[in-house]
Design a protein that fits this description.
Shape: elongated
CATH architecture of the largest domain: 3-Layer(aba) Sandwich
Number of helices: 8
Number of strands: 12
CATH topology of the largest domain: Lysozyme-like
Helix content: 25-40%
Bound molecules: zinc ion
CATH superfamily of the largest domain: Peptidoglycan recognition protein-like
Largest sheet: 6 strands, mixed
Length: 271
């Protein structure tokens, strides 16, 4: 079972197939042709015979109606192997920037949990970020869902998902570096990585008062494998991005498998 952290869990009583998600090739974007609240009500009506895993509101709301272990009923023959995201709006609308962010968050999460590529696809045999209309009649013949304006925004969703995931996932692994984020201090970074912070300072020519910039890339002293202590809010993809190591390699080095759960305080070997 998988529920996305950061999504509001709003389970529906019916209109999905329990345990029916057979695989996850990617994420399918839809348009509600209506409002978030109206869709939320409709999915609770057994007569609807329809649902989706996720839904966004124009203001940036993100709902999860169906656990991703369960099959939502959003795109007919595409249900078994794809996750679905419904988006508030009318046919012809573009997604708001807040909606693009939320779709990107779902894609980045699907990348982390299911290994979905951060790429646009327009083929039901492909993997990545797709859209309802690409499935043609087999997917219910909704060729105008979500509409050409939103289809044109799919690359932007991928770009934002890549930023969230730090480009992790198969990209070039440099290893031996750490990218500073908000709130980091040298001593805390050293503690989490099991490296004397004085050595990090030395390796990067840093001197008192040891000011770090967000986004600054630090070289880590000492070659070879190191460790990292997980803190609250971390995910494998986020850790991998900060350390310049693909998250799949970290998962492999630590025997972690889907759904890739890590817990604060856990020590990871960094390959
Ligand atoms: Zn649709």
């Amino acid at each position: 079972m998988a529920r996305m952290p950061g999504a509001e869990w709003r389970p529906i009583p019916s209109n999905f197939t329990r345990g029916g998600q057979e695989s996850v090739q990617g994420v399918v974007i839809h348009i509600m042709d209506g409002s978030l609240s109206g869709t939320d009500s409709w999915f609770r009506n057994p007569a609807a015979q329809a649902s989706s895993h996720f839904g966004t509101g124009k203001g940036g709301q993100l709902y999860q109606w169906v656990d991703t272990a369960d099959r939502a009923w959003a795109q007919a023959a595409g249900n078994r192997n794809w996750l679905s995201v419904e988006n508030e709006g009318r046919g012809g609308d573009s997604l708001t920037s807040a909606q693009l962010d939320r779709c990107a968050a779902v894609l980045a999460w699907a990348h982390q949990v299911y290994g979905v590529p951060l790429a646009v696809t327009s083929s039901t045999g492909g993997r990545g970020l797709g859209y309802h209309g690409m499935g043609g009649s087999a997917w219910g013949g909704h060729t105008s869902c979500p509409g050409s304006a939103i289809v044109a925004q799919l690359p932007e969703i991928v770009r934002r998902a890549q930023a969230l995931a730090g480009g992790g996932g198969g990209g070039g692994s440099t290893g031996g570096t750490y990218t500073v984020r908000s709130g980091d201090t040298l001593s805390e970074i050293g503690q989490r990585l099991g490296i004397d912070w004085h050595k990090i300072a030395e390796a990067n020519g840093l001197r008192s008062p040891y000011v770090l910039q967000i986004g600054q890339r630090l070289t880590l002293p000492g070659a070879g494998s190191t460790t990292y202590t997980v803190r609250s809010g971390d995910s494998l993809s986020v850790i991998g991005a900060r350390l310049g190591v693909s998250w799949q390699r970290i998962a492999e080095a630590n025997g972690i498998r889907a759904p890739y759960v890590i817990t604060p305080g856990q020590t990871l070997r960094i390959p």
